[in-house]
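User: I'm designing a mutation panel for Autoinducer 2 import system permease protein LsrD and want to avoid disrupting the core. Could you give me a predicted structure to guide residue selection? Please restate the sequence first so the numbering is unambiguous.

Assistant: Good idea. Sequence first, for numbering, then the predicted structure tokens:
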Amino acid sequence: MSEQSVATAPPAGKDEHRQSPPALVRLRILMHDKPILGPLVVLVLSLVVFSLLADNFLSAGNLSLITQQVMVIGIAGLGQTIIILTAGIDLSAGAVAVFSAIVMAKAATDLGLPGPLAILVGLLCGGVCGALNGALVVRFRLPPFIATLGTLSVFYALGLYLSGGATIRGTDMPAIMTAMGKSFSLFGTNVSYGAVLLVVLVAVVSYCLLYTSWGRHVHAVGDDVQAAGLTGIRTGRVLISVYIVAGVLYGIAAWVLIGRTGAASPQSASTLNLDSITAAVIGGASLFGGRGRVLGTFVGALIVGVFRNGLALAGVQVLWQDFAVGLLIVGAVALDQWIRKGSR
């Protein structure tokens, strides 16, 4: 009996080899457990490639320019990430930011409100826009894509009407309205105050999502809204609060946008919708909800800024820059599908 057992027992080496998962499976598990790794690799590769294509890409002046480009995208991307965590999407992010910027500027120039109060009015405008989006999704049960596609046109039209199609110059506003566009020197590089605000917001939003009951409810709703409801979570309130918080973040992005461009214009932030979604998705946020990190969105925003800046330095036309950003989205979603397939 013992001889048969010895004869039929598989070799120890083969059994161990059979139990060891293939390299691709291990990579898939690693990227599912640590979603920040993929964006970091893409960022490093982008920096290396564009530094080879353009001699002045890594210069202090150009790095400062990238931080200025990233700060608006990053802040709007934070709002987009919170919504994507609930398996939604916000196509009105850019329109809300522009509308809030115009409301902010008009409150200061036409109504004569002090700068801080005008900024608060703009943030309130963003929150109200977010509440409207949330109500359409929760109360009227519209898909987030359809609801925000509709409000995209509504908010853009309101901004155009309020401004009369004219640009409101930053020189006509209180100094605090353009303060986020100003910079200070750090290790020989000019760093904008808006970039510092972005880092602070990344820390605050990340803490709220990871260590508060609200953040846990947001993730639960994104994982399975019906199961979350059965556990006692008021899913409707959570969703509406998510859209309100996102709207306020778009309002903050509007304040930074005024500082970045030195004006409030209905034609500004034309690519903010695409860029904010790209930053979130490239950063590891799953369009199916429940998975994503704010730090990943920050890295994703850096990738978008590096791509647009590097391609511009390489002499690539704007339309091909948009083409490249679109490819980034497709690649990120395909990668997310591959990771999700392995986690099931």
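For picking mutation sites, this is relevant: Residues 72-276+286-295 form one domain. The chain has a mean pLDDT of 90.
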